[in-house]
Structures are given as C-alpha cells and as structure tokens.
Amino acid sequence: MRSGERAPLFELKTSRPSRFDSRRIVTDLLASGGIAIDGGEPWDIRVHDERFFDRLLREESLGLGESYMDGWWDCPSIDQMICRSFDAELHTRLKLDWATVLSELRVRLLNLQSIRRAPRVARTHYDLGNAFFERMLGPTMTYSCGYWRKARTLEESQDDKHELVCEKLDLDSGDRLLDIGCGWGRLLRHATEGRGCRAIGITLSQNQIDWAKPRSGALSIDYWLADYRDPRLVQSAPFDKIVSVGMFEHVGRRNYRRYMECVHRLLADDGLFLLHTIGNHPHAGVDVWTERYIFPNSVTPSQRDLVSAIGELFIIEDWHNFGADYDRTLMAWHENFERHAAEPDFPYDERFKRMWRLYLLMFAGTFRSRMRMQLWQLVLAKKGRRGGYRSVR
Amino acid sequence: MRSGERAPLFELKTSRPSRFDSRRIVTDLLASGGIAIDGGEPWDIRVHDERFFDRLLREESLGLGESYMDGWWDCPSIDQMICRSFDAELHTRLKLDWATVLSELRVRLLNLQSIRRAPRVARTHYDLGNAFFERMLGPTMTYSCGYWRKARTLEESQDDKHELVCEKLDLDSGDRLLDIGCGWGRLLRHATEGRGCRAIGITLSQNQIDWAKPRSGALSIDYWLADYRDPRLVQSAPFDKIVSVGMFEHVGRRNYRRYMECVHRLLADDGLFLLHTIGNHPHAGVDVWTERYIFPNSVTPSQRDLVSAIGELFIIEDWHNFGADYDRTLMAWHENFERHAAEPDFPYDERFKRMWRLYLLMFAGTFRSRMRMQLWQLVLAKKGRRGGYRSVR
Fold this sequence. Notes:
The structure is a homodimer. The first copy, chain A, is of the alpha/beta class. Chain A folds into two domains: 19-95, no CATH class; 120-381, Vaccinia Virus protein VP39 (Rossmann fold, 3-Layer(aba) Sandwich). Chain A has 16 helices and nine strands. In chain A, helix 9 links the parallel strand 3 (176-180) and strand 4 (198-203). The longest helix of chain A has 20 residues, at 350-369. Chain A starts with 5 loop residues before the first helix and ends in a 12-residue tail after the last strand. At the A-B interface, helix 14, strand 8 and strand 9 of A face helix 14, strand 8 and strand 9 of B. Strand 8 (315-321) of chain A pairs antiparallel with strand 8 (315-321) of chain B.
C-alpha cells in the first residue's frame, strides 16, 4: 500500500514533467532494468506515440495497459519486459497515482464481493463465452495454474494438478467432496471418476454449469448455481473434503474470515480443505489496469491475509508454492489465444486482442520474476490428521 | 490465552470444591475422555494420594506435573492418557489458574529472551551434561524432531531429517551455510560432509561446542558461542543458506520480528532460509509445568505469530507439517531414557526421573493427538527462487 507517499503524489500532479522530461525519465528508468526504447532486444519497447511517456508516469499500470490497448507501443516479448521490470524493481520507483489510491480505498471500504455484487466478475469475465475459453484453455477447460513438475503439455499440467489435488486430499470412494468455484468441472470429473467419490460443485456462472452438466454423464456430481455463503450448503454438510481452486481471488479482503468460517462449518471434523490461490506481495496494492479490464473486484491475498483469516480455525498441514508454473500455464494460454485470434472469424476487435495479450503476458512475466505473485496450495485441517498428514508433491 | 475468563477463575479461588467434590469432578472429567481412576487400561490413572484431585483442579498442568513428580499418581502409559485427554478436549474444561495467567503475562510483558537472559535456557537444560544426552539422543546427538517417512530407527530418522533439510535448501559445494542453534553439530557435519559446503554454527552452550569441535575433523565448520543477534555475524554475511532447527522455540514472542530481520540481513538475496520449529495452537498459552521444569523461558509460536514476524521480509516457498513424527521421536527418546535411568550409576534421583519421563511422554501424547502442537519446516526466500522452488518431501 506504500502509505505515507501522499505528499510526493500531489507534487507529481502539480508539477507534472513536460513531455520531453517524461521521455528522459522513462528511458532512464527502463534502462536501469536493461530495457531500451526502440532497441533490438525482444524485451525492448517500440514507441509509436510520444504521449506514452507522459501517460506511463501519470497513470502507471493503468497508463501502461491502456496505452498498449490504444496501440501506442509494442514489444516483441511483453513477458520478458515485465519480468525484467520486476527484477529491477522498477515498479517501486514509479509514483502512485490517484487512480491507484482510490481503487485501493474502494477495496478497503466497500464490500465489493457482497452476495449481491459477487456475480459481477462471473458476468463480465467468465461469461466471455465458452467458445472463447475452449480455444484458450484447451480441452480441460481449466482456468487456473497447471502443475508442470512432469507435464509436457498444458492438458497434462492440468490433469496432473487435479491428480495432485486428489492425492493431497487423500480422496477416496467414501468421501463427499465440495468444490467451491468449480468452473467447468474438470476437477470434479477427475475426482469422481478417478476416486469414486460423490461431489457438489458450486459456481456463480450459469454458462459453466450448462457446459459442465452434459459432460458429467453418470458421475455423481451435482452442480449448483450458488455462492459459498449459500445456506443450502449447510444443510448438505458436513463434507469430508473441500477444495477451492482459483476462486479465493474473487472473495475479497473483507470476506476472507467469513469464507474460512463457512468452510469450517461445512467441513467434517476429520476432513481436509485444499485452498489453491494466487498470492500477492504484502506491499502490493490492487493493480488498477487488471482490476478495470480483466478481473473486476478481484484482489489476491498476501500470506498474512491468509493466516489471519485462518486464525484458530485450521491447522496448516501443508503449504506448497508453485508460482513459477503459472508462467508456463499463461504462456500456453497465450499461444492458444494468439492462434485463435489470428483466425478470420475471431469475434473480438483489435483493442480486445491487445488487452487480452497484455493480460496473459504481463502475468506470465510477473510470475516468472517470482517476487510479486505466488501460486499457493494450502492443505488445512480442523484438528490435524491422526497419524500425521502425508504431504505429497 | 482464553481471555475473558477472569470471573470464573476468581470464583474458583473463593469457592474451592472440597476434596470429596474434587474427586468426583476429576473422575467425571476424565471419564468423558475414557480415562478411569484406578482402572485396568494402560491410559487409566492410579492415584496414590487423594490430594491429587484438589491439586489438579487448583493448579491444572502445574498440579498434574508436580503431583506426578511427588509420586501421587501413576499411569502405565502417560502418552496414551495425554493423547486421550486432548482428543476429548479435557484441557479446555479445566479452569485457568493464576499461575498460568501470571506466567502468560510474564511472557507478554517481559523480554525473557533478551541477549542477557537468553543463556538461561542453555544453562539449565542443555547443560544437564553431554553424557546424559548421549544416552537419550543416541549417536546423532540431535535434540529435535526426526523425519520418519522411511526411517526405521531414531538414528535413521535424524539423518533423514538432515538430508531432507539439505535437499530443501538445495545445498551445494559453493554455498556458505549458517546454522542458528546448531546443538551438537550433527546437521553441520551432515551438510559439510555430504555437500562440501562451508558452514558456521552458533550456539549458546559451550558444552555443545566442546563436544562438537573434536568430532568435526577436517570439515569446514566454525563453531561460535554466539547469539543470533551477534554483530559479528553481519560481518560474515551474506550466507547463501541459513537453517535453524529447534531453536525458534527459545526466541520469545517479543523477539520474533527481530529474529526474522536478523536472518533477512544475513541471507543472500537469492538465498534460502529453512526454519524448523514446533508450532502451537493460537489459543494455547504457555504450559506452566513445562516452563518451570523443562524449558525455562520457552514459548512456541502459532502459525499467525510466524507469518506476522515474516511480514514482507520473506516469501513462503514451502511449509511442511510433520508433527506426528515428533510422537515417534519422543517415544524413542523415552525408551533410551528409561534404559539409562534403570542403570545403577544413573546420576539423578527419583524425582528427576519422574519429571523427565512425564516431559517425554506428555509431549509424545500431545503430538499424537495433533490438535495442540505441530512440527513445521518452512522454507523462506527473500525474492522467490528463479525458475521456481522445487519442494521435496
């Protein structure tokens, strides 16, 4: 949150550098990360519109993103450029702008993920259309980080991740499983087919249910259009195992504790809960561009956020960081996306293409640099597994 | 800390139950955990002195421990009795006594592990004598939880633990390693011999250094009689890898943050830090009996304590809970101890024997029940390992 920087922010607004100065400031800043303007390396930036420099200094991440969408600059390898920027900690040397401050305040003061508002992210992002996600995500339709320890393809990485989750949960045929934020249901099908357990999956997207249901055949899966706070879940409790993959990012800081309390209430006393989530650096605020264009109302938790919310409810049995695997996952999605975007019947315009490309490559570079974002899988137990929890990798 | 219980505490003091009531209350309480007074099961309690019931209700853990030392009660399997007590959550149904409250306040208000006071635990516990520990710990002289995934003996479990640590730290011959609280140096010898790295080990016990030095031969190990805050360490920094096994329990709550800052300062930017520590339940205070007789000034951290102290200094790469392995380790130590205590030249009296037996078996039972105490190994990085941290088990 970089508090206490209010004074220099104001200074920046009142004595904004001229365009000539902006070019020099940005050029020097990028040079310290080994990135050149109009240079020949894949991570160098080619600037098409001189207003880029001003906009970047004025609006930081938002300016960088919107000016890319507007075609003001290009870069042969945005992922490498972003990774180098974080490695050189350039982000800490750009001043905070008012949009960031206001967005941060909004996250802190409002409950952006109240039951009423929560469907918003489902509508704007996940409802882009199943056809779109089929092209980008491939046959697994899994929109979260794969596990690349042995995998050679995107599909393998997702199936390996699902198998890893089943192993970590020690899932067997007698178990009832709840999947909070089940997406298109691949994990549910993997678990019920492979382990013979019964399962309920909840999501806020009717599109996902419509896609998943006919593909689940005779497997013992119920799909519910429901929020994790839905009182009907309590009536179905206790669940032996609960899993939540890539959904906690949409829960919102003010609901972290409530979320953990809900899971605690739904989980059997000797059950296990696996939480798979992106982790953020404690000092990182909300990225304004991502919040505006990609994931409205989303915020990733820090390690302290997680453990505070867990409180005395759960014992940490296991905590696995495989953030570097998100780099490979995002690069695979990007490859699929570009192939799709090059097709003549691609239904979105150039600005959308640039927006989506920036999103995928920016996150790939961020995960590659490792400092800023993590991918964590936590295994939590109410009382600790008798005989010891057997951690797997 | 069970705050807000002041009123009933006072009530207990003013209207203390008569001895007859005490027997009934304790008998009922234990019965709800399946433990009988003078029953025939190994976890049943045989009471030799009727004052036991009063003392247990009045002084809880301290009364339980001291009355055992005084020979007022016996139990064929103290570990099973303790495990059953925790499983039935009997500890939450005994009132807090004033000794617990005062001891807790002491931990909160005083810095019991200041540089000046820190040697106290080393003097009273670790200086019991190397001969004593050689008998109890066996040839590895390792006084921390072993790793029993594949091990069949205590010695194997300790060597496997040391190999696990080396693997998790990705230790190689170019590394400089710092071991904070190196004990009798087995980990240092394992690491320098197996990986060819150079190392410094620090301890507050001259006894440990005297024992370890002649056994380190030509290995590249320096032993320092030093505190983790010792300014000479900064002059030797940065270290590529830092490890601390079973020492954080003596750091003290008020020093957790300082400890993490010290490690952060001493660690190379791309280095790794492995912290091996007992973990406590967030609601558990200090156990008065243990504090008084076994580990003066010691307190085990909760998961929240750890993550608060880590703050923004480190990224969590890995968190491994193998608390159940402490049960097996303690039972193995107990076996060694009883063999030693039965020898005619055993140099301590009956009261010491009972004290030490209770300590080992009480902790074995506590770790077996899993709810109350954990054994955690955390791997922490300043910036996250490039290419991803490869977690091992």
